[in-house]
Structures are given as C-alpha cells and as structure tokens.
C-alpha cells in the first residue's frame, strides 16, 4: 500500500497541530473552510465522523507493507503530520518524504515511479525489506536524528530547510498571498547536509537551532533492491525548536482563517 500526499491520519489531533503551526488553515483547505468544517473541529459530530473516515481507525488492518509518500513542501499537509500517527501503525512500514516538492509532485514523477517500482518489486519477488528505526531529539542548541538500519545502505543523505521567518512554522512551497485570494510562491528550499556515519548501520544528523524561525531535517536512505532496483526511504522530519508559534484553538474559535 502506497498512500501518496495524503497523511492526515488521526484527523482531529493533526488538525489542531496544523492550527498551532500556521495560526489558521492553509489556503488549500478552502473548500472545507467554506463548508465550515473547521468551526466544527471539536464538535461531537466531527468525532463521530472521524470514527468512520479516519484511516487510523482501521490501523489493525494495515498488515501489508506500507510506504507513505509525502512532500516536504505540501500546501495541504505538514511535514511533521507523521508525529501523530506513524508510531500507531503496524509494520512493515516506511516513510518517503520527497524534498523540494509540493502537493502535485510536479517535476518528481520519474523518482516517484522508480520508488514505486522497487517497492512493489520487493513484494512481488518475496524479497526481504530492510528495516529502519530512528529517534528524534532536540535541545536548546540543536536537533538530532539517530538512524539504525538492518543492512548497510548504499547511500545516506540529509535534507534540511529553514522557515522564511519566525511567524509561522511553515515549510509550504505555496501560500496564500496576504494581499489577495491568490496563491503565491513561498520558496522554502531543502538543501543537502552532512550525515555522520557511526558504523555500517548507524547514522546521525544534527542541525543547529536557528536564531529566528524553525529548521526541519530528515535522513534519506537508499538500499539495494531486487533486480538492480533501488529502494528509497526516509526518516520522519525533526523540527527545531520543538515549539509552536500559536496557541491551540478550541470549540468555535477553530473557525480561524485561511493563510
């Protein structure tokens, strides 16, 4: 199973996290905002609906191999949505964050096809997937990801980015123009950074806490796959500092505004 650019599991908690990050709702939620979904976020009706439509409700059924594909600059969903669901999913499970891509994944079609090919080929060939585990941590100085793999990767890369200001914890590539109803480019660019190799199957990435705003980073790993293919997975992002710029909403105050 490969859900792509839709990882809003644990809907209510994730939407509250969305509000605390952006101080409102992404402009991409426009249709839902018009239907007044946000004002009902904490209502009993929303909880009843979530019990039916939230994918996390059915997590005990997800016993097949899973690769959850997201993008670093998605205008719908946030790069740290996984904090609210990934640990609740059974294995085998993998993440694949596509750097410097927005919701449509325009310009990344070939890399997506190759990643899908190797993932499904591993299943069809009854080959063994490598395993990955990691920890995220942060201090007043920096953030760290410690990665452990079951086999030695063929390539390990770190990607990192910083928000453009200290107003929002916002890594979207497209945002709402504050002077109009139109979207505008929001150039949060993800760059390559250094990964420290501890041994053949352990790696560490460290990013300093920025003076203003937030920094996010993740480790991307490539493994040999069947028939000359390459498996590509990532860790979750780590965002430093581990703070939110806005207080949470509750009840009807969650109506918010589009940003």
From TrEMBL:
InterPro entries in UniProt:
AB_hydrolase_fold, PhoPQ-act_pathogen-rel_PqaA
Instruction: Specify the domain of life of the species encoding this protein.
Output: Eukaryota
Q: Which Pfam families match?
A: PhoPQ_related (PF10142)
Under Gene3D superfamilies, the record lists: alpha/beta hydrolase
- This chain belongs to the protein called Uncharacterized protein
